[in-house]
Every structure is written in structure tokens, then in C-alpha cells.
């Protein structure tokens, strides 16, 4: 054994203890460090022939890289849709690395059994029936990709061709209809060989991001063959929701595959006041839910649900004599793009066990309350205007006068020590959005952000 490896093995308890202390110091400083550090990268360090052991690596990380990291785990990182990590999720994630399982086969079954238990709880949390089976993937992009891969196989079934065997060329042109599809849907269509132009945007309702169901019906009626519909449950700009029940009802007349991108919107199901927004989610043929957003588990984690695990196995089966069998409950190796994967479910398992449905409901409801409070502040601040009502956990707003991307970027930069917001364009207008999905965010953070916004707008318009 290399002497540094042998030495590290000998002092493993001390190394882990120092790492733990380092992690605690980072977390304790979350509130104080700039939310986003915009320093450039450090000078590139060469690969060395000899290393210095874990302690030296930790010291170098602490000096060169850690100061540059954002407080994305903290309470005022409102960019994109970003969750933190609950204490239990963090504990579960640490253990995931410690136990280092490859949880994909019944030949070594505990990992995938734990994953199935966790997926079962998640399905219940989101109101899905037992007809939905789920698998863990690395994020909502991958969840959308897997859902659309199953949809592609379903189209083949409808047209009497086998896409998994004969390729996507056997299908002919495909139509994927959506009102306000997330950008990852186009990416998924590119990956799947269906092509980005397969995505046809269907008109939305006036002043909304939710699809106009009558327009969707017309698009279905005009389509030359079976389609895929991507319904949106929580759009990133204004958290709008398609009417899932009305869309699902169209399936009787126009057979189509219904994929629902509920990356973070699915969490509305946890709050009785908002559960109606995702009513009908169970009717979907496939569902995407992100976990590293509103469940607050560390990156990277999402789940993909489907009513057709048989088609999923047709797409993803990995036939090899030394892997597990393709049975009624196929091993996970046969269900996702990865073959090997970490015991990704453990962080979710921990947080659901530690806080239960009520604990996670409280996170969701506190985030919604925070977004509403910030929305009210934005409406009050001179020089800012809300572009949409705060439906759930995102505040979408712009400058009243001269809302150019440059001025909005300047506003965001002015705020960056206190809060991180990301740019967007809504209804043709450059805008900023603040998304609430971190378990640490409190009313004090909303006040701090509103005060910083107020100061930044005054400075910009002075
Ligand atoms: C975040 C998001 C995605 C993509 O998620 P990743 O985890 O970044 O892959 C897809 N759809 C919606 C609605 C999202 O909010």
C-alpha cells in the first residue's frame, strides 16, 4: 500500500473528525459568507507525483477553493430552484459515501430494497397510487429524459414498431406538445433522438403559463399520429400549473402519453391549501419530481415515476449474464440510464424518517409564506413591480422603468452579498426571480432580502 494511503488508513478517525469540524464551520458560516462569490478561479495547480495525504488536501481545499464556494446551502440563495440539505439528509448523504454501495442488483439486494421503500414513501407523499413505480435518478433533467424515453417506447408500441431494438428512425416524426415546457425537455428530446423540433409549443391561457386546454385539444386533433403531452406542474417563472385532470380527460379521445414535469410543483401536494394545484397527478403516465430542490436532500437526486415499468425495462435493460434477472420487478440496473449508481435514496430515506410528512409540509408552507411576504415587499418597493401573482414559491418581478437585462443584472449584482436571484424573461420582459425552496429560510431572511432590494433599487435609480 502506498505510504500516504497506509498513513490515512491508520488515522481515519482523526481525518473524519477534522472533516466533520470543517463541514460544521462551513455550515455555521452560511449566514455570513457572501451568498455568491464572484472571484475568478485560483491559479491552476499541477498534478503532483506524490500527494500529501488527506490532511494536506483538506488544508489546500480550505485555502484555494472553499472561499470561492457559494452559500447555495443557505437561506438566501433564491436563484434557479435550489434546495439545501436538512440535517438528516446530510447525515444520510455522508453515510451513502461511507457505505459506498452500488445499489442496482438483486445479487446484492439491500440497496435497491431500501430505494424501493423510499420510492414508495415518496409516491404516497405526492398522492400517487400503487400503479406508479419509481426509480431514483440524478436530477429532474434525467427524470424528464427517462419519462420521455418511456413515452418514445410507448409511441413505438402504438405504431407497432420496437424503438429499443430498431431505433428511433422506425417511428417517423414525433410531436411533443406542451404549454410552457422546461428547457430540459428540449434537451431530453435531443438526447433521445426525437429532436428538439419535435417539441411544439401550445398556446397558454392569457396572462398565464398554464396551457390552454382547448388549444391543446386542437393540436391533438390536428396531429397525424399519437403524441406525447408534457404537462407542467410548477413552471419556473411563475409556478403555474396545467389543469392535469382536464388534460388527462382528453386521453380518452386522443390516445397520448401524458408526462408531467412536477420537478418542484409536486410538493404542493404536501400542503392542504395548495394540493388542488396538482390534483390529477396520479393520472399521468410518467412523472418527474426533483428531490434536491424542495425535499432538501443534497445534489444529485430526483425520482421518476411511471405506470409502465415494463416499457421502461424495454428501454433500459442491460442484458448481461452476471447481472440480475429481468423479472416482474426488474433490478434497477434495467430501469435507468446508469448501470452503477450510489445509494442515492439514503438521504431521502433519512429526511423522510427524521421529519415525516408533517416536517416536510412545514418546509413547503414556510417557503410559500416567505415567497408571499417577499412578493408583498416587491409590490411595495418604488421602482419594482411584480409580473405575476405569487402562486406558490417564486417571486417574479422587474424594474418598473427601463427593465433591460443589463440593469437587472446590475440590480442582482448589487444584492449578491445578501441574496442570490437569477434572471429570466417573462411574457417577453426581462425579469428577476426569487425561488424559495430551502428549509433554512425564515421571515428574517425575507426582511433582510427586502431591505437589500430596497437599497439596491434606490442606488440603481439614483
Ligand atoms: C429544475 C427543473 C428541471 C431540471 O432539473 P435538474 O435537477 O436541474 O436536472 C426540470 N423541470 C423543472 C420544472 C425544473 O424546475
TrEMBL record:
Top-rank taxon: Bacteria
Q: Which residues form the signal peptide?
A: none
Q: Which residues cross the membrane?
A: none
Q: Which SUPFAM superfamilies match?
A: PLP-dependent transferases (SSF53383)
What is the protein name for this chain? Aspartate aminotransferase family protein
Q: Which UniProt keywords apply?
A: Aminotransferase, Decarboxylase, Lyase, Pyridoxal phosphate, Transferase
Q: Which cofactor does it need?
A: pyridoxal 5'-phosphate
Q: What are the N6-(pyridoxal phosphate)lysine sites (modified residues) in this protein?
A: 293
Q: Which GO terms describe its biological process?
A: amino acid metabolic process; carboxylic acid metabolic process
Say which family it is in: Belongs to the group II decarboxylase family.
Question: Which Pfam families is this protein grouped with?
Answer: Pyridoxal_deC
Q: Which GO terms describe its molecular function?
A: aromatic-L-amino-acid decarboxylase activity; pyridoxal phosphate binding; transaminase activity
Amino acid at each position: 500500500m502506498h505510504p500516504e494511503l497506509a498513513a490515512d488508513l491508520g488515522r481515519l478517525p482523526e481525518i473524519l473528525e477534522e472533516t466533520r469540524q470543517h463541514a460544521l464551520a462551513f455550515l455555521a458560516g452560511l449566514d455570513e459568507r457572501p451568498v455568491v462569490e464572484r472571484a475568478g478561479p485560483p491559479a491552476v495547480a499541477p498534478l503532483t507525483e506524490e500527494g500529501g495525504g488527506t490532511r494536506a488536501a483538506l488544508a489546500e481545499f480550505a485555502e484555494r477553493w472553499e472561499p470561492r464556494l457559494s452559500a447555495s446551502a443557505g437561506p438566501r440563495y433564491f436563484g434557479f430552484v435550489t434546495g439545501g440539505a436538512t440535517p438528516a439528509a446530510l447525515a444520510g448523504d455522508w453515510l451513502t459515501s461511507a457505505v459506498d454501495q452500488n445499489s442496482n442488483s438483486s445479487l446484492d439486494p439491500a440497496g435497491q430494497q431500501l430505494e424501493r421503500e423510499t420510492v414508495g414513501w415518496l409516491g404516497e407523499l405526492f398522492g400517487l397510487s400503487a400503479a406508479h413505480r419509481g426509480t431514483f435518478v440524478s436530477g429532474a433533467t434525467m427524470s424528464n429524459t427517462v419519462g420521455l424515453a418511456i413515452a418514445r417506447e410507448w409511441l413505438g408500441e402504438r405504431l407497432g414498431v420496437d424503438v429499443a431494438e430498431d431505433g428511433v428512425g422506425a417511428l417517423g416524426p414525433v410531436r411533443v406538445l406542451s404549454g410552457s415546457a422546461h428547457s430540459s425537455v428540449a434537451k431530453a428530446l435531443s438526447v433521445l433522438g426525437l429532436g428538439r423540433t419535435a417539441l411544439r409549443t401550445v398556446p397558454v391561457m392569457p396572462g398565464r403559463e398554464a396551457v390552454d386546454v382547448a388549444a391543446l385539444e386542437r393540436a391533438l386533433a390536428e396531429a397525424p399520429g399519437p403524441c406525447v403531452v408534457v404537462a407542467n406542474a410548477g413552471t419556473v417563472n411563475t409556478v403555474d400549473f396545467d389543469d392535469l385532470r382536464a388534460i388527462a380527460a382528453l386521453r380518452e379521445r386522443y390516445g397520448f402519453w401524458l408526462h408531467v414535469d412536477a420537478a418542484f410543483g409536486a410538493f404542493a401536494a404536501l400542503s392542504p391549501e395548495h394540493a388542488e394545484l396538482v390534483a390529477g397527478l396520479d393520472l399521468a403516465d410518467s412523472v418527474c419530481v426533483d428531490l434536491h430542490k424542495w425535499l432538501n436532500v443534497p445534489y444529485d437526486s430526483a425520482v421518476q415515476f411511471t405506470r409502465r415499468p415494463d416499457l421502461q425495462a424495454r428501454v433500459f435493460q442491460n442484458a448481461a449474464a452476471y447481472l440480475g434477472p429481468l423479472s416482474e420487478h426488474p433490478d434497477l440496473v434495467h430501469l435507468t440510464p446508469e448501470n452503477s449508481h450510489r445509494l442515492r435514496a439514503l438521504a431521502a430515506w433519512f429526511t423522510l424518517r427524521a421529519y415525516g410528512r408533517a416536517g416536510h409540509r412545514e418546509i413547503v408552507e414556510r417557503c410559500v409564506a416567505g415567497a408571499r411576504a417577499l412578493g408583498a415587499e416587491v409590490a411595495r418597493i418604488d421602482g419594482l413591480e411584480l409580473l405575476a401573482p405569487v402562486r406558490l414559491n417564486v417571486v417574479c418581478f422587474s424594474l418598473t422603468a427601463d427593465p433591460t437585462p443589463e440593469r437587472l443584472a446590475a440590480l442582482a449584482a448589487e444584492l449578491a452579498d445578501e441574496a442570490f436571484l437569477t434572471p429570466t424573461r417573462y411574457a417577453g420582459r426581462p425579469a428577476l426571480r426569487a425561488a424559495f425552496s430551502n428549509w433554512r429560510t425564515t421571515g428574517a431572511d425575507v426582511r433582510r432580502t427586502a431591505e437589500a432590494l430596497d437599497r439596491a433599487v434606490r442606488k440603481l435609480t439614483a
